[in-house]
Amino acid sequence: MNYVLATANQDKVSELVKILGDDIQLTARPRWVPEVIEDSDSLVGNARLKARALLGATETASLADDTGLFVDALGGDPGVLSARFAGEGASYADNVAALLDAMAGMENRRCEFRTAAFMACPCGAELWVESRLAGSIAGHPLGTGGFGYDPVFLPEGGGGRSFSEMTPEEKNASSHRFRAFSGLGILLRFHTHP
Asked: Beta-strand (E) ranges in 59-185?
């Protein structure tokens, strides 16, 4: 089974290769395919936009995802804008700093990572899986691994460690992205596409 990935984020690509296994072949997004404007108000909507854009550009079945960090004390923000919380072109560190600034002095640190994994294929079929992982936001960055909000995300059941303090194997065993793409991988193995 061959799929083109909508993401150009090499950190995500590395994770997805490990999650989906050897029987699902992944091709990186061609450089000539432009970034997709993610203007949906839902994770599934944004993942669908990306998957359909790659399908249209490459005529190859495509996989996409969208992930958001939903913080209770911020009314669900940054949510679908998580990758751009500190503005367009923000770095991981910029977004983490913006989040910690927004939460300064707040006692409620509860949050939830949500991921929507989406497949679109030339036959017109679409499959998607959504996942959630509860946790809390640390008061400052912890650890040096991972990416995105990993330094400040403390997953439930993680022993008080951030994703950045875990090995990639430990993170993948419970992460929101692992749950979504593991579920999608099961569906893909039962789905045939031209």
From this structure: 62-71, 78-79, 110-120, 126-137, 153-155
- H-only helix segments in the chain: 10-20, 43-58, 92-102, 168-172, 176-190
Cβ-proximal residues to 114 (8 Å cutoff; 6+ apart), any chain: 43, 67, 68, 70, 130, 131, 132, 133, 176
Position 157: which residue type?
A: G
Q: What is 2-190's CATH number, 3.40.50.2300, 3.40.50.2020, 2.40.30.10, 3.90.950.10?
A: 3.90.950.10
pLDDT (tens digit per residue) in 4-26? 998 877 777 888 888 888 788 88
Structure confidence by residue, pLDDT tens digits, 151-185: 999 999 999 999 999 998 898 888 888 899 999 98
Separation of alpha carbons 66 and 53, rounded Å: 14
Residue with tokens 């669900």: 76
- Do residues 80 and 130 lie in contact, with contact meaning Cβ atoms separated by under 8 Å? no
Torsion of CA 13, 18, 21, 25, to 10 degrees: 20
Query: Which sequence positions are flagged as catalytic?
Result: 66
